[in-house]
Amino acid sequence: MSATGKTAAKLVGVAVVMASLSFAAVPFYDWFCRVTGFGGTTSVATAAPDTILDQTIQIRFDASTAPGMPWQFKPVQRTMTVRIGENALAFYEAYNPTSRTVGGTASYNVTPDAAGGYFSKIACFCFTEQVLKPGERVEMPVSFFVDPEIVKDREGKFVKEITLSYTFYETPLPEEQAALEPAADGTLN
User: Fold this and answer.
1) Do 101 and 62 form a contact (C-beta atoms < 8 A)?
2) Alpha-carbon dihedral angle through residues 145, 146, 149, 154, given to the nearest 10 degrees
3) How far apart are CA 101 and CA 111, in angstroms?
């Protein structure tokens, strides 16, 4: 093989490695954020801890929709005070004011960032896609707790308030639901 051929082969190899690393970066970054709470990423748990502290923390609830998402979306309660380690349940309300079925997925985070690794969800509407029919209004629960380990963290121990924020984005409907959408003339597709 000529020197030009070897150089070309090396460049192709470098390009393949770079492409592979770029695909691996997204899941790695997601894993890193979930493990460390980096960027306000919350944790997921199967149950609340056995330890409930006498200390409380105020939880604020925030809701928004992405541009183009037609839903109305808001927290049912704006704030809640919970004991650290206590399992709590909050609700958000979504309403589809349109004449079509709309699917949506919620992204979420908490602030301050120092609380991200200690805010754990047990169950949440944000884990799956939500689909609302025309005119449908639903209350969607989120079950969560603040891990007692937060009081041992050098930054986390100063957190007195956590804001849980959700943003809903419209998602394409699954084919079977889209097939049931009424056409402009009122007939089903």
Assistant:
1) no
2) 170
3) 32
